[in-house]
Design goal:
Blueprint: E1 3-7, H1 11-22, E2 26-31, H2 34-40, E3 46-49, H3 55-60, E4 68-71, H4 77-89, E5 94-98, H5 102-110, E6 115-117, H6 119-132, E7 136-143, E8 146-152, H7 162-165, H8 167-171, E9 174-185, E10 191-198, E11 212-218, H9 219-226
Parallel strand pairs: 1-2, 1-4, 2-3, 4-5, 5-6
Antiparallel strand pairs: 7-8, 8-11, 9-10, 9-11
Length: about 230
């Protein structure tokens, strides 16, 4: 079980802390605002009201023992940077820090943290990719120039098998899963469509119009495949 500290409980930090807890991590949630801590204390392993620029306070809650510390402080740039510096000084194993501006990002780079979180930049990239293609419904950057994308089956591939499409050789992308919509009926007799994921698709699986594909590849090749 990973031990993760989330520092700064705004919308992003609170959401992150809850999601990590749901995924089985032991989460220490920290904020200087008591109301923010009270709002999340029942959803995480531990919650503490303290200033993250106070070394003694951080030490008292055992911040030096966590596997990862995520600095989610947004508007208060000084607190963001001082907290990151303190975590480095205290020997925290891995540090992720949020950046709100290019200058702040450059400063954080100089502190040699493990990852820089730039929500605005990442969301801009994700939204732009989704808007640029009518087929793409979800986009997740993996590394520079590479993505995993969920997209509706291009029209010309409906009724074809994965073997016939031969995405790896013809488009240099990998189809790693198929999301199918399966008709169902509720206990009340209502007709519904339920999602079913084939996470190990077979070469002879036939694609249907309502299917969505999960594909991996370079951004250029993914876009070329999506826009068939």
């Amino acid at each position: 079980m990973r031990n993760i500290a989330v520092i700064g409980l705004g919308k992003f930090g609170s959401s992150l802390a809850r999601e990590l807890t749901e995924k089985g991590a032991e989460v220490l949630a920290i904020d200087r605002n008591r109301e923010s801590v009270e709002a999340i204390k029942d959803s995480v392993t531990h919650a503490a009201t303290l200033s993250s620029t106070d070394e003694n306070a951080l030490s008292a809650v055992g911040i030096q023992n966590v596997d990862v510390a995520v600095v989610c402080i947004g508007e208060d740039i000084e607190a963001n940077l001082l907290t990151t510096i303190l975590l480095k000084k205290m020997g925290v194993q891995r540090i992720w820090t949020r950046a709100l501006s290019p200058l702040q990002q450059e400063i954080i780079k100089m502190l040699e943290v493990d990852n820089i979180i730039n929500l605005e930049q990442e969301m801009g990239r994700i939204i732009a990719t989704s808007l640029a293609s009518t087929n793409i419904t979800r986009h997740i950057p993996l590394a520079k120039g590479h993505s995993i994308v969920e997209l509706q089956v291009p029209e010309e591939f409906v009724g074809k098998t994965l073997r016939a499409i031969d995405a790896r050789n013809k488009f240099s992308v990998n189809i790693v899963a198929i999301k199918k919509m399966i008709p169902g009926i509720t206990d009340q007799g209502e007709r519904i469509m339920e999602e079913s994921i084939e996470d190990v698709p077979k070469p002879d699986d036939v694609l249907e119009e309502t299917d969505h594909l999960l594909i991996v590849g370079t951004d250029k090749n993914v876009e070329k495949f999506a826009n068939r």
